[in-house]
Structures are given as C-alpha cells and as structure tokens.
C-alpha cells in the first residue's frame, strides 16, 4: 500500500521533494498539493496526478492525505505542523520547525499532550554518507575522545534577501543540528566572531561570520559561514580527537588533468551536494510513517536548534559569550 502525501509549498525544495517522492522514493505518492502561487501549484498537481487545494488547512484535513510535507516559507511552518498534529497526521517539516523558540515549544507540547511523535524536521545532513561515517568513527572510540571540530559552510552566493541574521538561523542551523547528533551532546554556550567583510556582499549582510560553540563536555567547535565564497558549495568538518583527526568526505567528482593542472569538480549548491541525503531522508521517513514509528530528527531537535540559533544571534549582537539553556527533555524524546 502506498503512503498518500500532501505537500504544502511548491517552491524550490517543495518541487524537489515532489520529484523525489514521484521518481525515487518507494511506497509513496503525492496526492495533493497547495501553494499561494496557485498557477504553478496547479500545474505541478497536474504533472504528478495530484489534486490542487486552496489552503494548507484544507490539504491537511483531506481524508485521502495520510501524511503531510511542509515546504512553505519559514513563518508558516508552525501553523501547519500544529494543524497536522491536531488531525493526528504524520508531518515532515523543512527547517526551521518554527521561526520562534516558543513556537517550537508549542509543537513539542502538542506532541507530548498527544503522547505520540508525529513530527520530523528536515535536517537532512544526518542522512549524508560522509557525516554517517564520521559518526561511526567517533562512536567506535578508536580515535579517543573528541576535542575540537573545525567546520565551514560555504555557499557560492546569496540573494539580496539573505541578511546577517540568516547566516546562523538559516545556514549554520544545519551544522548546529548535525554536530549535536554527531557528538551526542548538547551545547552550553555560543560566541560569534565577525571577520573582515567580503566586498562580494551587500549592506544588510555581514559575510563571513564565525560561530563558536561549546558542548557539555567542553568540546570546542568553530563554524565558518561564508555564503558568498564564489567558487562552490563547500561543506567541511574536521574532527580533532585525542589519537587522530577525521574529516568529512564529499561526494566524488571526476578530475580532469590538462595543461599541467588537475581540476576536480565540486558541487555548486546544497541540492547537488546533499542529493543522496535528501533521497535517503525521505525514503526513511516514508518507511517510518508506514511502520507507524518515527525515528528521524524530532520536534525536540527542532526546539534545541532554535534555542541555539537564538543564542548565536544574541552572541553576534552583543559580541559576548552567551550561555545556552535548554529545558528538560520530555520522556517522549529520550
Ligand atoms: P521557495 O520560496 O522557493 O518556496 C516556498 C513556497 O512556499 C513558495 O512557492 C511560496 O509561494 C509557498 N508558500 C508560502 N506561504 C505559503 C502558504 N501559507 N501556503 C502554501 N504555500 C505557501 O523557498 P524554498 O527554498 O523552497 O524553501 C522552503 C522551505 O524549505 C524554507 O522553510 C527553507 O528554510 C527550507 N529549505 C530547506 C533546505 C534544506 O537543505 N533542508 C534547503 C532549502 C530550503
Ligand atoms: C538553505 O536554506 C539551506 O537549508 C541549505 O541547506 C544551506 O546550505 C543554505 O546555506 C541555506 O541558505
């Protein structure tokens, strides 16, 4: 039996996910879509044999929709996730879970009240082969204790609407989630350093930035966020341990040697870099919904990410080290 999915938001990643559900993921079918950009959504609905409906609320209430995917703009996520929980339906929500920490908390509280996990947040890096290999090596203990992580999140360029706030809230949020998962530890403090600003940016964006995080056991993490690096989409993570160093592998691209030089391809954007991870993320989500047991990034992970990005923002604004205070984790998420 196929899982019948309704998608809210048929923009860039919404279309990508619909394509994955239609062509790659097994055991699922998109049966309904909605977007405030009606014409495009109607066309996409027609292409995949789905129904177009006018609102997210209507889509969630359709009896034929078994599970919901939220890929609309950030400020709309919370309302649709809460609505899906009200309808007792599984919901996959792209990051962020909510634009407010209090909003993430409302979602956590709704799940706790229901006594069941229905929400998965789109932190796809946990499904990337490179990060999974890092986790396996760290967990094996063969390199001893982890001491430091040096990371980079570089994008080719950012649009005019991408501002200083977004470097941490929109981009580094992926490192914030995946590194916590990798280390199996929460963060206790954040700091932000603002290096010399590139001339390839605009007035509203200070680029690059460096986010520094400390974990419960004292591990130091630095994340360079440089969203106008010009040359490619480059994600780095070097884990320094007591008995060795392990670095994140990237998907392999063929290299061309010519005229005394060696050229190796690199991805140009996150869709290319994490294509396999997105596919695996959605396949495992469909499998877990079908099995009636969630096992991906939870609403609690969405809440912790939000607390951390908020602390990062305060650290940037004040120039100070800001403590990260996370509520007690409810049993539902342990
Ligand atoms: P987009 O702007 O291309 O698409 C968003 C779509 O949502 C638009 O078509 C817009 O008309 C629609 N929309 C807005 N409000 C709506 C509402 N109330 N009901 C129905 N549709 C509505 O943006 P993009 O890049 O596709 O991002 C969507 C979400 O996915 C964002 O929250 C973003 O943070 C997240 N994202 C996650 C990525 C990841 O790597 N996991 C990568 C890119 C985006
Ligand atoms: C974007 O919103 C994403 O989620 C991408 O994964 C990230 O790499 C990029 O920096 C963000 O702007």
Automatic annotation (TrEMBL):
Taxonomic lineage: Bacteria, Bacillati, Bacillota, Bacilli, Bacillales
Record bears the keyword Manganese: no
Entry keywords, A to Z: NAD, Oxidoreductase
InterPro entries: Gfo-Idh-MocA_inositol_DH, Gfo/Idh/MocA-like_OxRdtase_C, Gfo/Idh/MocA-like_OxRdtase_N, MI/DCI_dehydrogenase, NAD(P)-bd_dom_sf
Residue span, Gfo/Idh/MocA-like oxidoreductase C-terminal domain: 135-324
Keyword NAD annotated: yes
Family: Belongs to the Gfo/Idh/MocA family.
GO BP terms: inositol catabolic process
Regions crossing the membrane: none
Protein name (Swiss-Prot/TrEMBL): Inositol 2-dehydrogenase/D-chiro-inositol 3-dehydrogenase
Species the sequence originates in: Niallia endozanthoxylica
Molecular-function GO terms, alphabetical: inositol 2-dehydrogenase (NAD+) activity; nucleotide binding
Domain Gfo/Idh/MocA-like oxidoreductase N-terminal: 3-123
Alphabetical list of Pfam families matching this protein: GFO_IDH_MocA (PF01408), GFO_IDH_MocA_C (PF02894)
Oligomeric form and interacting partners: Homotetramer.
E.C. number(s) listed in UniProt: 1.1.1.18, 1.1.1.369
Its job: Involved in the oxidation of myo-inositol (MI) and D-chiro-inositol (DCI) to 2-keto-myo-inositol (2KMI or 2-inosose) and 1-keto-D-chiro-inositol (1KDCI), respectively.
Catalytic activity reported: myo-inositol + NAD(+) = scyllo-inosose + NADH + H(+); 1D-chiro-inositol + NAD(+) = scyllo-inosine + NADH + H(+)
UniProt pathway: Polyol metabolism; myo-inositol degradation into acetyl-CoA; acetyl-CoA from myo-inositol: step 1/7
């Amino acid at each position: 039996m196929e899982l019948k999915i309704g998608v809210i938001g048929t923009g860039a990643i919404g279309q990508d996910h619909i394509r994955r559900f239609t062509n790659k993921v097994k055991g699922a079918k998109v049966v309904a879509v909605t977007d405030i950009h009606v014409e495009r959504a109607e066309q996409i609905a027609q292409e995949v044999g789905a129904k177009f409906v006018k609102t997210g609320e209507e889509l969630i209430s359709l009896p034929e929709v078994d599970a919901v995917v939220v890929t609309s703009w950030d400020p709309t996520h919370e309302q649709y996730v809460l609505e899906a929980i009200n309808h007792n339906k599984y919901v996959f929500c792209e990051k962020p879970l909510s634009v407010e920490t209090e909003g993430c908390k409302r979602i956590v509280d709704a799940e706790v009240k229901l006594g069941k996990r229905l929400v998965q947040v789109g932190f796809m890096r946990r499904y990337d082969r490179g990060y999974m290999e890092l986790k396996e090596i760290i967990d094996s203990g063969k390199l001893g204790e982890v001491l430091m992580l040096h990371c980079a999140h570089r994008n080719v360029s950012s649009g005019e609407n991408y501002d200083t706030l977004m470097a941490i809230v929109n981009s580094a949020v992926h490192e914030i989630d995946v590194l916590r998962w990798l280390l199996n530890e929460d963060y206790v403090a954040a700091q932000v350093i603002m290096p010399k600003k590139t001339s390839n940016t605009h007035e509203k964006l200070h680029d690059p930035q460096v986010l520094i995080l400390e974990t419960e056991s004292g591990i130091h993490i630095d994340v360079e966020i440089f969203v106008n690096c010009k040359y490619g989409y480059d994600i780095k993570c070097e884990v320094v341990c007591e008995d060795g160093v392990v670095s994140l592998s990237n998907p392999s691209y063929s290299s061309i040697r010519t005229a005394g030089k060696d050229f190796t391809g690199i991805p140009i954007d996150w869709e290319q870099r994490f294509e396999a991870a997105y596919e695996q993320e959605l396949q495992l989500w469909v499998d877990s919904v079908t099995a009636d047991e969630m096992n991906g990034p939870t609403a609690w992970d969405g809440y912790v990410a939000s607390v951390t990005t908020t602390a990062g923002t305060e650290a940037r604004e004040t120039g100070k080290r800001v403590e990260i205070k996370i509520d007690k984790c409810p049993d539902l998420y342990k």
